[in-house]
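Customer escalation, tier 2.

The customer says the design service returned an amino acid string that "doesn't look like it belongs to this structure." They asked us to rerun it and document both sides in this ticket. The original structure tokens are below, unchanged.
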């Protein structure tokens, strides 16, 4: 069921890709994965359209953006409408980067696998060759939450590959994001002998988790991306003592090295190479991400790096409607 059946439809292509870089990944996750590609109505490879890559937030995969939505639009339907309303034509890839940790931060990690390489070295070239799109000067990446982190991370570290980024409520400002949550996480972990392994196995076996329990799992999972400990269960270890809550400085330092706000000091100039740096965030984000986004925008402004930052009256949840703002901006920047 679509909101408007009169709008011309693009095509959603369902492909299978066999990865080389994900073979033997630390979590034993699949290296043969599906991905969806949306092409606009009347598309032909001769158009040489820009390519946008969709990075989904934690506990999900970009494949989910093709799911039917009862009260809004899924991504293909939204793209159909936006192009009908005048947005520049693009090709959009929706890759699957889900892991046994229930999500991804889209970087290379000894704890999870080479997902930055997977996107840049495998998925983008695979899509570009198949659909005659993208290429240098015409590549953009967008995402929300963990996907927004991925967009920020790729903009900072792979600006020679990407040409535009859009960050929606992206994980950053790690002290504001994680420090208050860690102590709540330890209270959940306490019920399982202060053991991440026991907590993980017990909670994932439950028919339903509480919000606090799901956040505790998500926060522990982040350690396998930012500070993997390959001697521990699924490479996870929080940067504080599970009983006393005392900080382990060297482990927390490893987390902070992956905070885009901190990374900016060494890598921020790379963002100047991009055609567009767009950011937005709800002004009362549930995870306090608006504080990190403000800091990142402040550093961009101080460095006189062109960017757009927009705060809106909302929280972290159900903000896909903001795609109506940033997708046309990305498409226009990459079509110029």
């Amino acid at each position: 069921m679509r909101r408007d059946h009169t709008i011309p439809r693009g095509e959603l292509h369902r492909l299978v890709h066999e990865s080389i870089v994900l073979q033997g990944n630390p979590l034993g996750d699949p290296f043969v994965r599906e991905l969806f590609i949306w092409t606009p109505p009347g598309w032909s490879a001769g158009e040489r359209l820009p390519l946008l890559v969709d990075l989904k937030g934690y506990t999900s995969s970009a494949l989910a953006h093709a799911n039917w939505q009862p009260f809004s639009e899924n991504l293909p339907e939204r793209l159909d409408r936006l192009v009908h309303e005048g947005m520049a034509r693009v090709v959009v890839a929706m890759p699957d980067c889900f892991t046994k940790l229930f999500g991804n931060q889209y970087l290379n990690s000894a704890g999870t696998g080479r997902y930055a390489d997977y996107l840049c070295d495998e998925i983008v070239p695979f899509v570009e060759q198949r659909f005659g799109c993208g290429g240098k000067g015409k590549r953009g990446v967008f995402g929300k939450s963990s996907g927004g982190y991925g967009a920020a991370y790729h903009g900072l570290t792979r600006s020679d590959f990407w040409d535009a980024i859009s960050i929606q409520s992206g994980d950053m400002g790690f002290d504001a994001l994680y420090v208050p949550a860690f102590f709540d996480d330890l209270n959940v972990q306490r019920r399982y002998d202060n053991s991440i392994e026991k907590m993980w196995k017990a909670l994932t076996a439950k028919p339903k988790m509480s919000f606090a329990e799901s956040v505790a799992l998500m926060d522990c999972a982040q350690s396998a991306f930012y500070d993997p400990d390959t001697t521990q269960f699924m490479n996870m270890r929080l940067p504080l003592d599970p009983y006393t809550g005392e900080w382990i400085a060297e482990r927390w330092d490893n987390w902070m090295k992956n905070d885009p706000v901190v990374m900016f000091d060494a890598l921020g100039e790379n963002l100047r190479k991009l055609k567009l740096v767009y950011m937005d965030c709800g002004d009362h984000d549930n995870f306090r991400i608006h504080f990190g986004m403000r800091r990142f925008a402040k550093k961009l402004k101080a460095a006189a790096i062109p960017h757009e930052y927009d705060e809106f009256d909302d929280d972290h949840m159900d903000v896909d409607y903001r795609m109506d703002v940033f997708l046309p901006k990305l498409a226009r920047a990459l079509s110029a």
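Tier 2 assessment: The sequence is consistent with the input. The CA atoms of residues 34 and 101 lie 18 Å apart. The mean pLDDT is 97. Sent an explanation to the customer and offered a walkthrough call.
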